[in-house]
Amino acid sequence: MDGFGERLKRLRKDFDITQSQLAEQIGVVPSAVGKYERIPASYPSVEALIKIADYFNVSLDYLLRGKKSVPAVENNINGQLSNSPFIQANNGGVVFNGDKGQSLSPEALELLHIYETLGGRDRLKLLNFAVELERGSE
Questions:
Q1: Which residues fall within 8 angstroms of residue 96, CB to CB, at 6 or more apart?
Q2: Across the strands, what pairs with 95?
Q3: I want to staple 62 with a disulfide (CB 3.0 to 4.6 A). Which of 58, 82, 103, 106 is the partner?
Q4: What is the rounded radius of gyration, in angstroms, for the C-alpha atoms of the chain?
Q5: Containing domain of residue 16, as a range?
Q6: pTM, whole model, 2 decimals?
């Protein structure tokens, strides 16, 4: 299983950019990017982490845990992602396009609404909280 550093290096190589170029994009010194890639327990700040995810168009969950997640739901609500398991219903509600085409609960819709109102750092906090809740229920 690869860690954050390996995923970062692979993304950087896939995008054909140097450590210096990435460092400039996320606002750190080039040696910091090298440190993230080489030292397993080394992570960037939350702000830099968000910039990395945005630059490579990946989720924070992928960067930190290596898990590919469902594309951002707010994009699906706007009808921008057609290959997602979420689709917009005719009445404007969101429907999960799973085996049974189930509607999302009012609670899930409220969480989506709250998520849409948050900025990057607060979205990360909400994601981390949800992950911790999920781990607690296992």
A1: 85, 86, 102, 103, 104
A2: 87, 103
A3: 58
A4: 17
A5: 4-65
A6: 0.50
The verdict on 47 and 81 lying in the same domain is no
Last-in-domain residue among 48, 65, 82? 65
By the 8 A CB rule, do 9 and 37 touch?
yes
Tokens of 58: 């990946």
The residue type of 115 is Y
Whole-angstrom Cα distance, residue 137 to residue 80?
32
Tens of pLDDT, residues 104-126: 677 777 787 787 787 777 888 88
Q: CATH number for the domain including 58?
A: 1.10.260.40
78 is written with which tokens? 């706007």
Q: Which one-letter DSSP state was computed for residue 62?
A: H
CA distance 29 to 41: 18
